[in-house]
Amino acid sequence: MHELSLIRTLLQQVDAIQASHADCVLRRIDVSVGEFSGIDPELLRLAFSSTSEGNSLAGVEFRVARVPLCARCRNCDREFPVHRFRFVCPNCECTGTDVVRGGELRLESVTFEEQEA
Ligand SMILES: [Zn+2]
């Protein structure tokens, strides 16, 4: 499953952040999934729960937010939402565009709680 390897990569990033918060407990992981990424948020959640079963990640909240596809025109710099994968600038009708959001899976934030002494 594609989502499982994505989760592994994501958790490596979380691990790296956690290393500098050694005395804190991980509470929540927030990720965003782009419309254009081809990732199913539901499968991603399932992959997380199967990965976290019976280890230190059990009980950690995992939130997935969907991010709409957004592009920027290379000609006039206008940012615009992309509908039906039509990559045409609404301002100057240029077709040279770059995806600025919605094309990937991203770790947005990791929430820690201080451990009680
Ligand atoms: Zn334009």
- Low-pLDDT windows of residues: none
- Helices and strands: which structural class? alpha+beta
Question: How many H/I helical runs?
Answer: 2
Architecture of the domain at 2-67 and 103-114, according to CATH?
2-Layer Sandwich
Oligomeric status = single chain
Q: Which cofactor or ligand species appear?
A: zinc ion
**Main pleated sheet:** 3 strands, mixed
CATH class of the domain at 2-67 and 103-114: Alpha Beta
- What is the CATH topology of the domain at 2-67 and 103-114? hypothetical protein PF0899 fold
Helix content: 25-40%
| Overall average residue pLDDT | 92
Span between termini = 40 Å
State the shape. Answer: elongated
Evaluate the radius of gyration.
18 Å
**Which strand order do you get reading across the main beta sheet?**
2-1-6
| Number of DSSP-assigned strands | 6
Strand content: 25-35%
- Order of H and E elements: HEHEEEEE
